[in-house]
Amino acid sequence: MSxxxxxxxxxxxxxxxxxxxxxxxxxxxxxxQVAASGRSHERGREVTEEIxxxxxxxDFLTAHLDGSARASEDLAHEAVRxxxxxxxxxxxxxxxxxxxxxxxxxxAIFDEVYAVNVKAPxxxxxxxxxxxxxxxxxxxxxxxxxxxxxxxxxxxGSRIRPSRGACQRHLxxxxxxxxxxxxRWRYRQRGRxxxxxxxxxxxxxxxxxxxxxxVPGQR
Length: 219
What we know:
- 44% of the residues lie in helices and 15% in strands.
- It is built from seven helices and seven strands.
- It has a five-stranded parallel sheet, with helices on both faces. It has a two-stranded antiparallel sheet with strand order 6-7.
- Helix 3 (69-82) crosses helix 4 (107-134).
- It is globular.
């Protein structure tokens, strides 16, 4: 078992299935103490049993994140309790995606999706982030739920997916040794000492005092 997240605590919502479950299991394998939350107690028990069978540490918290501030705050307080007083990492993975066509999505369904996918993680971050700041920092990840369908009535398709690059850049800033930034991002960082190619280009540019009249040392 690796120990990149040893002595860290993590709350993972939507941890009873799909990506949320995979994240909870992976974090525990890296040494984190995980609070996995979801609506199904039975599936939550399966997740914690899987983690504990691999010598990991996990507890399950039943939560119905309906978009109300109270539901998110209650989960935050319970997670702090089971995790020993603090949350180092928050992963907002809970979400719903009915998969209906635009024309078939009524106001009630739209409001439910917005409440679960937008309001719930917003209020959960609001409940947890201040304590993270007081403790010296933390990490928060919000998963944009991917959907892809073609409207049978209009023939139009839609797709939303999370930005993997954004997640990589955030982790690289938080813990560079454990999460080296993507090569493309390293190359783009201005004045990074560990990127000799970019440093060389910048020095040559400064010496040229480019004809466009830019300030020496900038591009």
